[in-house]
UniProtKB/TrEMBL annotation:
Name by which UniProt lists this protein: AsmA domain-containing protein
Residue segments, region Disordered: 514-537, 807-908
Low complexity compositional bias, start-end: 826-879, 894-908
Species assigned in the record: Advenella kashmirensis W13003
One GO term describing the cellular component: plasma membrane
Length: 908
């Protein structure tokens, strides 16, 4: 017995010696790099991805099987684009667990991990193929068995808990004792939601990792991004459970902290805590003890001052496939303010809500929105009377009520409600009986109630909704209907129609009047805007809630209005096509009957920068009602056809819009009259208005006087508050009035104008002197009108007429007037010298009959017949009545200048 035991021991020693020598030989001769290409080919065949191992594989056998590798990269499927790369990685495998069919990785250390995660336009990720399991191989049928006979059961891989290819035995397990990632980076691009972000400096530490078993995770890094802009630190930890095959993920004691800039907010405190379970395949979420808090200030350049928001959900269960929605004491609330002293508040809560395929009920879901500042807005939301099931949900009432007011004397209150039917399985919502009132109020306590009825239907699976609303405004019917498609980027189509609408009772007039405080949705008076807020200068465009909402619209529509009244002007048969592209409103094919004529045109409104461009063509419109409609004095009659182009640039708050506007006006007006002057006197005797120094005389303006005309042609240009006359001509029976091209200008900012031009007679002019008559076939008088409408000066430029017949005639008249005046002056001097000589004679005493001696100063003035030949009849000086105190600011002042004579002709 002892001999056999001795022989066995010697045999075992020999075997161990051979094993040791064999292992030593294997370790010294085995080269793992020989398998690099084999590994790369397996990955290529299995996943259609290219793996490149640039560094050497290093293998160790004792005391553990260890492997380290450097410079590994993996491409996108069927592409050379890199999906992930690693600078270096090492891990060790325990030997004894392999004997029990378990792969236990003692520790994994990875450095320089970089991964590019991409979600395409259809919502698919670029790593989903790595999580999929290989399809089961086709079963080989043993030919010894017939199809209807019982065959031996085949071995299946029903149980698989790893993302790696599994051995055929179902009890094979993979455990990772710990994972450590240093200096990693995760790049994320979501083309579906237009996101582009990255997590740099990423560090990951985990406990024991086994799929379908919870393990501790800690992740830190710096969140950076371009869409949205981000620069923040991130710290995440919790007890995580992963099952990528079934797409089930959970996290207990989850806590995430963010601090820094994310989007428009510089987050000072950002936390999310709670327990979560996510089924990404069914789009289901279960949570408990959820608490989220965000507090911070606005990022630089956003205009946001501060933001505070919180969400609490002790119990939340959502399953989109059931469908199922359960909430207990759910509440969302927040507040914010911006640099324009505008504040915002919002609340949404429900004590209990339970909607499932078997029943529905709960307490009302309520919410509110508040906006305070230059704009006042408040709205309450309430959904109550919930019953039925998730696929046949009934809501007794969905109600909206609130108020809106701006810095004017107008407030809008609304109260709208409707029962609702919903099918959460098919994603259908129907509001079949919308009814309510819109009430317009002003500071004079007047109000107008507008009844509204309508319907709304939405299909969220098809991404389409339709709406229809009818209202009664000023006893006229108003209709608005259309549809919305693509809810992620809504596109609206609509049609507006009306019988008779008075816009004066619907649209606020732009004024500097202080805002009338509007009651908020709860009937409380909102606090007034901060003192001086209205006068606060700013260089940005004036924005408001309405323009912001309009600026987010994309769509098209038509308008067909039988009659519109605005500022007393009636527009008949108004039609237009409207096109909304974000922050731009295009209005094309505008047509309307107005002022006994027609108007057609287009307009473009840039709501982001408050820029407006309008092109209108007026045909055969009556000028007098047009001037009245523009709020101007009706100084002109006639029928006109002209084209108007107007562009209003970004106007800083408080600035004069005229300094930021450009435009042009070109056209003709026919067969009318111009009030304020009469051309007849000036052409009865043009020489009577001559002087040798061209002194300006006061403007003579008389509203009772009228000058008929045949044609007025003009081409005007507006630039930086100045109206330039590129061309201007007024044709009357006696005269043609023309402006000097591109020299006449009217400053709308200070009402100063300079209007050089000329009178050209269309009839012969007869001049009388010393019994002689001189007939001139055509007279051209250059003139200049300057000043303001309240204080204008007019003068004739006689120096330009020296070589003309009229100029020669004026010269001769001036010479004779000068000679007559010289003789009169000599005679007066002689008489003045004779009086002292008589007074020095001692015997020359006054006789009683003669009375007191007469001096030169006591002599009577010459009779009217002795007046200079160039003076007006009877020596009278033409009066200069006061010009009107409120002349039309935007009416060219050249027309009244045409026939205004100088005040009193100067004598040499």
């Amino acid at each position: 017995m002892k001999v056999w035991l001795k022989r066995i021991l010697i045999g075992l020693v020999i075997l161990m010696l051979f094993a040791f020598v064999g292992a030593a030989v294997f370790l010294l001769t085995f080269d793992p790099n020989a398998y690099k290409h084999k590994i790369e080919s397996i990955v290529q065949e299995r996943y259609n991805r290219t793996m490149v191992i640039e560094g050497d594989l290093e293998l160790s056998l004792f005391p553990r099987i260890g492997l380290s590798v450097r410079k590994i990269s993996l491409s996108e499927p069927d592409s050379t684009t890199t999906f992930a790369s690693i600078d270096s990685a090492r891990f060790a495998v325990a030997i004894w667990p392999l004997l029990s069919n378990r792969l236990v990785v003692d520790h994994v250390a990875v450095s320089g991990l970089k991964s590019w995660i991409v979600r395409d336009e259809k919502g698919n990720f670029n790593f989903e193929d790595l999580l999929s399991q290989p399809l089961p191989e086709a079963e080989n049928v043993d030919p010894r068995f017939k199809t209807d006979e019982i065959r031996p059961a085949t071995t299946t891989s029903a149980e698989t808990n790893s993302v790696l290819p599994q051995p055929k035995k179902t009890d094979f397990k993979i455990d990772i004792a710990g994972l450590e990632v240093q200096n990693g980076a995760l790049f994320y691009k979501d083309r579906l939601n237009n996101l582009d972000m990255r997590l740099n400096g990423m560090t990951i530490n985990t406990g024991r990792v086994t799929f379908d078993q919870p393990f501790d995770v800690s992740v830190t890094g710096r969140l950076e991004g371009a869409r949205p802009v981000a620069n923040a630190t991130v710290n995440i930890q919790g007890l995580v459970k992963l099952d990528p095959v079934t797409k089930l993920y959970s996290a207990r004691n989850f806590e995430a902290n963010v601090k820094g800039v994310v989007g428009d907010v510089d987050i000072q405190t950002g936390t999310l805590t709670g327990d979560f379970a996510v089924d990404s395949f069914a789009h289901a979420l279960t949570g408990s003890g959820i608490d989220m808090t965000v507090s911070g200030k606005g990022a630089k350049g956003t205009g946001l001052r501060n933001l505070d928001m919180s969400l609490t959900a002790p119990k939340l269960n959502f399953d989109s496939t059931a469908p199922l929605l359960q909430m207990t004491n759910f509440a969302v609330k927040g507040s914010a303010s911006d640099e324009d002293d505008q504040s915002y508040e919002w609340v949404l809560n429900t004590p209990a809500l339970d909607i499932s395929p078997t029943g529905a009920g709960g307490r009302p879901l309520t919410g509110s929105i508040r906006l305070k500042g230059k704009e006042q807005f408040g709205m309450n939301f309430r959904m109550q009377g919930i019953s039925g099931t998730s696929d046949a949900l009934s809501v007794a009432e969905v109600k909206l009520d609130g108020a809106y007011a701006r810095a004017s004397n107008r407030a809008v209150n609304f109260n709208i409600s409707s029962p609702a039917k919903m099918d959460l399985t098919r994603r259908l919502i129907a509001l079949s009986a919308i009814s309510g009132n819109v009430v317009l109020k002003d500071a004079e306590t007047r109000e107008q109630s507008i009844p509204v009825i309508g319907t709304f239907n939405a299909d969220f699976l098809k991404n389409v909704a339709s709406f229809k609303a009818d209202a009664v405004i000023n006893s006229g019917k108003f209709s608005f209907d259309g549809n919305v498609s693509h809810f992620d980027e809504p596109y609206v189509r609509f049609a507006v129609g009306a019988d008779s609408v008075n816009l004066d009772e619907l649209i606020d007039n732009v004024s500097s009047a202080p805002a009338a405080p509007a009651a908020n949705a709860q009937g409380e008076e909102p606090p007034p805007a901060a003192a001086g807020a209205e006068a606060k200068p700013t260089t940005t465009a004036v924005r408001n809630l309405v323009s912001d909402l309009m600026g987010s619209l994309v769509g098209s529509g038509t308008a067909s209005l039988k009659q519109i009244t605005y500022h007393g002007v009636v527009y008949n048969d108004v039609t237009a096509a409207l096109n909304f592209t974000k922050n731009q409103l295009g209005i094309t094919n505008i047509k309307s009957s107005i002022f006994d004529g027609q108007v057609e045109g287009d307009a473009l409104v840039n709501m982001k920068d408050s820029e407006t461009t309008t092109k209108l063509n007026f045909q055969n419109v009556s000028i007098e009602p047009l001037l009245k409609g523009l709020g101007m004095s009706p100084v002109m009659t006639g029928t006109g056809t002209f084209a108007l182009v107007f562009s209003s640039q970004n106007v800083p708050e408080g600035a004069d819009w005229r300094a930021h506007a450009t435009g042009s006006l070109e056209g003709e007006v026919h067969d009318g009259t111009i009030s304020g002057f009469d051309l007849a006197p000036i052409f009865a005797d043009p020489a009577a208005y001559a002087n040798n120094v061209e002194q300006a005389a006061a403007w003579k303006y008389d509203m009772a006087a009228k000058t008929p005309y045949h044609t007025l042609k003009a081409r005007l240009a507006l630039d930086k508050g100045e109206l330039h006359f590129a061309r201007f001509s007024l044709l009357t029976d006696p005269v043609l009035i023309e402006a000097d091209d591109n020299l006449a200008v009217y400053n709308l900012m200070n009402n100063q104008f300079s209007f050089p031009g000329r009178f050209v007679t269309r009839q012969p002019v007869t001049l009388n002197q010393d019994g002689l008559q001189l007939s001139i076939k055509q007279v051209s008088l250059p003139f200049e009108l300057t000043g303001t409408p309240a204080d204008a000066q007019f003068k004739v430029k006689w120096q330009r007429l020296n070589n003309s017949p009229l100029g020669q005639f004026v010269k001769q008249r001036r010479a004779k007037e000068a000679e007559a005046q010289k003789k009169a002056a000599d005679q007066a001097a002689a008489n003045q010298n004779a009086v002292p000589a008589e007074a020095s004679t001692p015997s020359a005493t006054p006789s009683p009959a003669s009375g007191p001696a007469e001096s030169a100063q006591d002599k009577p003035a010459p009779a009217a017949s002795e007046a200079p030949a160039g003076a007006p009849p009877d020596g009278a000086t033409p009066a200069a009545p006061e010009p009107p105190t409120t002349p039309p600011a935007d009416k060219p002042e050249a027309a009244p200048a045409a026939g205004a004579p100088a005040a009193s002709p100067a004598t040499p």
